[in-house]
Amino acid sequence: MQTDDEIKEMVRQKYSEIALQDKDTNASSCCGAGGCSTEVYNIMSEDYVELEGYAKDADLGLGCGLPTVFAKIKEGDTVIDLGSGAGNDCFVARAETGPSGKVIGIDFTPAMIDKARENTDKMGYNNVEFRQGDIEKMPVGGNMADVVVSNCVLNLVPNKRAVFAEIFRVLKPGGHFSISDIVLTGTLPEKLQSAAEMYAGCVAGAIQIDEYLSYIQEVGFQNITVQKNKPIIIPEDILSGYLTKEEVKKYIDTETSIRSITVYAKKKEQSSCCTPGGGCC
User: Fold this and answer.
1) In this structure, what DSSP letter does residue 233 have?
2) What are the sequence ranges of the domains in the chain?
3) What distance in Å separates the CA atoms of residue 245 and residue 43, rounded to the nearest whole number?
4) CA gyration radius for the chain?
């Protein structure tokens, strides 16, 4: 079994390669991770083209939802995007915050940060920035964000509970998140669980939906709501790269389900009668 550090290094290397690929290559694979299907269509990501702020050069086709659509971003908000990639979700969020807001993208991979900064320079935005860092320990202060978004990223992180704890830390009281991610119902075959490419492709690192939601509750979030829930179907020609013909049939016939969900939760608002010294009535 790989250690957390080994998984992170594998993800970093794979996404460094993905940063140099075009969208069509990424879109016809599993989150850009390889195992390219002969059925050329986007397995997980959804179409951003009609959204205000969409930037074609920043869209690598790596997402599994449209979290900004559900994120209730208001003008002037400070938004943090976890696993910001080439910047697409940040630019869509910036269209919602307007010039009076601020958007911070955090990504683990230097090549992605470079690509996102290039895209920001092209667009001339002065209120969008990108920081390299581990989302298990974000390079931002506490109680600073109104909204946190993320698109198909937490499934890549070994310690998902730690990420939710960090999201709680960086959000202002009353702030909230909207996150699109991959979860499971049922158990993946061992060969898929142990496949490095499938991990980088957002599937083998996914956990059970009940466990995922329990982490959110454990760190203190309220109003937990699944805003969208849809099945993800992996084509047989991708599965056959990891499983025998018999194993593929067994997998298809079981009740195991890979799902894309978008989840919302809110950090409790601070009581208005609390004083700066910590006393509350």
Assistant:
1) P
2) 4-266
3) 21
4) 19
Cα torsion angle, 270, 272, 276, 279, sign:
negative
Q: How far is CA 195 from CA 33, 43, 202, 203, in A?
A: 11, 18, 11, 10
Nearest CA to 21 among 89, 106, 99, 111? 111
Is the CB of residue 167 less than 8 Å from the CB of residue 148? yes
The 8-class DSSP code of residue 156 comes to G
Q: Which of 179, 26, 17 is nearest to 112 (CA)?
A: 17
CATH code: domain 4-266 is: 3.40.50.150
* Total Cβ atoms within 10 A of residue 44: 27
In 3-state terms, what secondary structure has residue 129? strand
Are the C-beta atoms of residues 148 and 177 closer than 8 Å to each other?
Answer: yes
DSSP string, 137-161: B-SS-SS-EEEEEEES-GGG-S-HH
Taking the C-alpha atoms of residue 91 and residue 95, their distance in angstroms, rounded to an integer, is 6
Q: What is the pLDDT along the chain (281 residues), one digit of tens a residue?
A: 567 776 676 666 766 666 665 555 544 444 444 444 433 334 566 777 788 998 888 887 778 899 999 999 999 999 999 999 999 999 999 999 999 999 999 999 999 999 999 999 999 999 999 999 999 999 999 999 999 999 989 988 889 999 999 999 999 999 999 999 999 888 888 887 776 566 555 676 888 999 999 999 999 999 999 999 998 888 888 888 888 999 989 888 887 788 899 999 999 998 655 545 555 54
C-beta of residue 200 within 8 angstroms of C-beta of residue 11:
yes
